[in-house]
Amino acid sequence: GAGLVELVKLGARVPHGFTITTAVARAYAQEGVMPKRVVFHLKQQVAALEKATGKRFGAAVEVGTMPLIVSVRSGAEVSMPGMMDTVLNLGLNWATTKALAITVDGRFAWDSYQRFLNMFGEVVLGIKKELFDDCKNRLLTRHGVSEIEQLSVAGLTELCGRYLALTEEESGK
Fold this sequence. Notes:
Elements (H helix, E strand, L loop, with lengths): L1 H8 L12 H10 L4 H18 L2 E2 L9 E2 L1 E3 L14 E4 L3 H10 L2 H19 L4 H15 L9 H19 L2
């Protein structure tokens, strides 16, 4: 985060974003809930991202518009055990993915969503990677292909549905 701020000061073109400090992570770890002031500022920052990009975060979007999709990245200079991994494509849900599929490309949209579901399930919810791999491999076998890249748009959509069911079954969320 600090590195991106420095790049902006130097005039470099970087994606819009904001930084959440490790103090917030510590507060969340101690209390198990986000401090109210952080929630307030987070909503403000997301609104600023929406304004800067002309996109909406997590909302059903109309065909022809793009959803706001963000990445969550650790900003530490050196990765340490227990640090959160990157989560890409945050902001995709079933509705935004459907709109993105119509607006941009079905394969891109559903492949992005299945990647998000897999990463979020593993990194945030702690679902074992092997469960996602087993789910994916069963679907690939059923479709007679060996790689996700070989799935049709319908196959990718089905995989997203299966990942959602797996996530709910394993996490209750």
